[in-house]
Amino acid sequence: MERGLYIAASGMLAEQARQDLISHDLANASTPGYKADRTITSSFSAMLLKDASSGQSVGALGLGARIEEQVTDVTPGPLRETGEPLDFAVQGDGFFAVRGANGVRYTRDGQFQVSARGGLVTASGDEVLGAGGQPIRVGPDGTVAGTEIGVTRLDAAKRAGDNLFTGTARGASTAPVRVGALESSAVDAVRTMADMMGSLRAFEAGQRVITTIDSTLGKAASQVGGI
Amino acid sequence: MTAQQQRMDALSNDIANVNTTGYKHERTRFRDLIASPTGLGGAEQVGAGAGAAAESAGRGWGQGVLQTTGQPLDVAIQGDGFLQVKLADGRTGLTRNGSLHIDARGRVMTAEGSFLQPPVTLPEGVSASDVQIASDGTLAAQGRPIGRMVLVSVTSPHKLDDTGAGVYTTNAASGAARAAGAGTTVAQGTLEASNVDLGDAMVELMAAQRGFQMASQAVRSQDEMLSIANGIKQ
N or C: which terminal CB in chain A sees fewer CB atoms within 10 Å? Predict the structure, then answer.
């Protein structure tokens, strides 16, 4: 019976973690090139229960749940025209490669700028790389052709903050780069809100299980053996 | 929510400046914040981010519409570039507001009272209406050249410091001012209108408001969860 308490509590903790992830998605509903997370909840491995007196097995019992994996959903977001000469969007699969202090990172946020030395950089100052991994120079008219910017296919994309991703590069992508447009956040507001409500109710259900077990325990403690 | 608030502030500023000569709309950039482990509810590699942050991404330097005013000392800059002016504190400022005037001594100054740099002075007996301004910025009166307004540009205009009133100053990140390219010209008798697109700004404002609303729902949901957790102990 006490096992039930901890199982229900683990479910509540998992839902709480899921709410944290959902809140992060909602907060980034306006972040260009943002990709939403999908969570995979799994149960802890089950254990076999045995009747202690007869030795007969009763059946398997799970020990609760936790969020096992977090997968970044790289579905492209809608493109939005901005008309700015240094805004770029990948049409289709692939990431821009940028080189910062921590090495090469990948991003779908194409809101680039020109550095004081005339190179194409991100707003944080990371160099945007061309197809051959070389830095890109902004032309004298303040523009860069979309074909100059390298687009890389990425496996196992993992969020690194600041709109950047890490992952395994898997060669160049053929996806064209659109100039004067930005990729909007790929957060689907309706789905995320529905997830949030579902998670909240699951959390509530966990609480009900705990209070029910608690009242059963209370009865056992106060009424069994009472005269 | 703070990030959306910042975006709304920038948009409000844009909308307020929809009629300001030479005004360039502000750009807000969003970025997601670094993730940290979620704790007991998730496996070690599961991390929840800390939300979003907004920061200024400079201004959109798109050309504003030219408005004909017929005033001889109104100039609009076409293309990438600025007029160079001397600020009251001695620094050199850059502006696209070409609504110029002359003071009592014939010196050409901008609307907020900064003299052109290098200075241009109208000779004795020449009035503003006699001045002809060529597309390269050369001022002439009665067929004789009297000076030239210098057009400059910078490598990275997104990084210019904003001193307010449409005047910018250079810094290390923007690069030093240099002579503008041949594509930059001035048009006499016109002014460059603000490049704020009211339609765009309104749509952005609505999006910011909805973003704010969604974030506030997340706060409410978290609050409800805490209240449910409190309900465990009856």
Answer: C
